[in-house]
Amino acid sequence: MAGKENMAIANPVFTTAMRSVGMLAMAGNPLALDFARKLHLDTMFPMEPLTDFNHGFDVSGSHIPYIALALPVECRHCLLNLYVKRNRFTNVLELASGYTPRGIELARKGIRYVGGDIPIVSEAVAKLAEPYLRDTPGKADYVSLDVTNRSSMLKAADLCGGEMVLISSGLFSYLQKAELRALFENVREILALHGGSWITFDCAEDALQKLCARIAGCNLSLLDTFLKRYDQDLSDASGLRIKVEDLETIKGLMREAGLKIEPFRMNAYGLELGTEHLMSAETNDALRRGLEELEAWKITALAESSSGSSRGSHPHQTVSPGAHMELQDGILTVSLRGRIDSMSAPDVLEVWKKTLEEAGVVDGRKSVKELHIQCEDLAYISSAGLRVLLMMLKRSSARTLRMSGVTRNVREIFYNTGFDHMMDFT
């Protein structure tokens, strides 16, 4: 199993999960505050609930109040909790759950909860939540999950059990088109097997950010620039960028996967916010009116005949994922197999490190002149896998990746991400 460092490198979006729990802590959520302190996020944020509406920091001569960062995270968290409770759902599966304390909050209400995320996150939050779940045994679990990985998704759904509601927020912007397609097909299969629906707030993310910036009196452009810089614009040291698909494209991909979208307005009646005491009555009313205008999506599975051949574009796992590498005469040959996604990409990274180490390589830029990537047994590669390939390329003196045996499905992923310009296909 890859170490924490490799998991973080291959999946840098886990820093966004830490940012979210830190902001929820600032909003006054006591569980999030405990999580954030134990995760040592005090270097990122003030680890105390906000006491002043205008308290913040200056960027480029302009002021950003912390509430502009904390409020959208708190509203999203509390609105989804309220929706689950109001509709009396008994089984909840959260996709890309992050370090949220939602599992504890719902378990205390007698609701079965399964939170799924990459191992570095799910393992940490399971330890953080364990002391709080002793009085509600069997009500909450945290599992390793890649939303594009059919096996991990089905296992999480089976663990949740029975008819369920899937929930997610802030997920779509981290996935390229092939990953979105795989996610939607996996959700379609889960809903067909178990029944229920998927509630996502992703479609309202931009509107919520604008609303909260307006409420906080913060310049939206400045705030957006700060957040993009903080999250490195969905990139990392490897330089990989993910193109954020527009909502119309996302709707089309959902229809292709056999999913039906039902937009609905969020009902903010009864919503309790930890930051409410910081606002004037007028500001609080404006916030709640704005929240009532936000649109979420309820997604259900269409009849089997409607999705037809959707599973054909998303190959099942038939080969154990991994990689074999050999360095000889300055040529690094990499044989990839199975699905290289957010859970298996760190293992590929570890193989690369060990291969160079065993060859006595200190600086790959001097010792690795060519990279040959053999893809005959590669069924799928996600952005995490692309990130590892790009890192290998940058830490060599090669100008391109020489690719062989690339299947049509995998080649489409390379083209859709713009990754193909770094490759020579044979």
Would you give an account of this structure?
The chain has helices at 4-10, 14-26, 30-38, 66-86, 102-107, 119-129, 150-160, 177-194, 205-216, 220-230, 247-256, 281-292, 304-307, 345-358, 364-367, 383-394, 408-416, and strands spanning 56-59, 62-65, 91-95, 112-117, 140-144, 164-168, 196-200, 259-265, 295-301, 322-328, 331-340, 370-381, 401-404, 423-425. The protein is of the alpha/beta class and 426 residues long. It folds into two domains: 4-311, Vaccinia Virus protein VP39 (Rossmann fold); 322-425, STAS domain (Transcription Regulator spoIIAA). The chain has a seven-stranded mixed β-sheet. The chain has a five-stranded mixed β-sheet with strand order 10-11-12-13-14. Strands 1-2 form a two-stranded antiparallel ribbon. Helix 2 packs across helix 4. The longest helix is centred in the first third of the chain and has 21 residues, at 66-86. The two termini are 32 Å apart. The relative contact order is 0.12. Residues 233-237 and 305-317 have low confidence and may be disordered.
Topology:
Elements (H helix, E strand, L loop, with lengths): L3 H7 L3 H13 L3 H9 L17 E4 L2 E4 H21 L4 E5 L6 H6 L4 E6 L1 H11 L10 E5 L5 H11 L3 E5 L8 H18 L1 E5 L4 H12 L3 H11 L16 H10 L2 E7 L15 H12 L2 E7 L2 H4 L14 E7 L2 E10 L4 H14 L5 H4 L2 E12 L1 H12 L6 E4 L3 H9 L6 E3 L1
Radius of gyration: 22 Å
Strand content: 15-25%
Number of domains: 2
Query: What count of helical segments does DSSP give?
Result: 17
**Poorly predicted residue ranges:** 233-237, 305-317
Relative helix content: 40-55%
Q: How does the overall form come out from the CA principal axes?
A: globular
Q: What's the rounded overall pLDDT mean?
A: 88
The class by helix and strand makeup works out as alpha/beta
In quaternary terms, these chains amount to single chain
Instruction: Please name the CATH architecture of the largest domain.
Output: 3-Layer(aba) Sandwich
Largest sheet: 7 strands, mixed
User: Which fold name fills CATH's third level, the topology of the largest domain?
Assistant: Rossmann fold
CATH class value of the largest domain? Alpha Beta
